[in-house]
Amino acid sequence: MSTPADSRAAALAQEPMRSAGPVRGFAAGTWTSVRDIWAHRELLDLLVRREVKARYKDSVLGFFWSLMRPLTMLVIYYVAIGKFLEAERSIPQFAIYIFTGLTAWQLFSEVVLSGTSSIVVNGGLIKKVYVPRDIFPLSTTGSALFNFGIQLGILIIAAVLTGSLRLDSRLLYLPVAFALLLALGLALALVLSAVNVYLRDVQYLVEITTMVLFWASPIVYSWKQVEGAIGGTALEEVYLGNPVTLAVLGFQRAFWSAGENEPMPDHLMLRLGVALAVSIVLLWLSQRIFTRLQGNFAQEL
User: Fold this and answer.
1) What is the DSSP secondary structure assignment for residue 169, as one 8-state letter?
2) Where in the cell (predicted)?
3) CB atoms near residue 233 (< 10 Å)
4) Ranges of the chain whose pLDDT falls below 70
């Protein structure tokens, strides 16, 4: 007489063998990974919801804090830097200017920082069942996009109320800059999350690096000040070689109408387009590197 355990063993024996290793070939491997993620899209949705809800677990006000954090950040920078340090004298509509840069930066930094630790944080699940490992950096990216949507909504409302938002061709900078931040951030998150499994110091290095990169983009100071300091030198091109800097400038171009007559880098849209194309290629390469490294995740975790 067969037992339930015997029945399960017999059913399992009939299942086809499936390789857990990476599929060879860039094109075939990428297509297989995309199909695998699509097949687990419901799990991805659940993980994104879990990431969002976990932030405010046992909180009475819940998502209210998602609104308070960017608003508080806006007030602090506006008062401390705009008023006390008198930055608003050289930067018109300083509140809109700085909040625009912070909105762009917050998306990028959250995708990278949360993505870097995503595999280690979900180590318990990874060791128990097979799921596409790419799902975990993607889930933190989904959570980051949720928070970005809230902050972007606040920015749009503030820009409309102050008359800074204009419906003209400058808004075309927004989707290009957004796509650049998303592609570059996810590319870094995939590689760093995989390397972090083998070398846990990576997440701390990333935290320090993002703090430095924050000041390497014109968020709390203007491009005009950068141009005055290093304009016309090789350092200017090095500075503009940072894709995050270009994305921040793109956001400012879209929302900061008071800076219409302020200097901006030449051929900004072209620079953004080139950076986006490079970031998409990097995203593809990063996914293939991640796939190569994921084979020993369970053992390392």
Assistant:
1) G
2) Cell inner membrane; Cell membrane
3) 10
4) 1-29, 56-66, 301
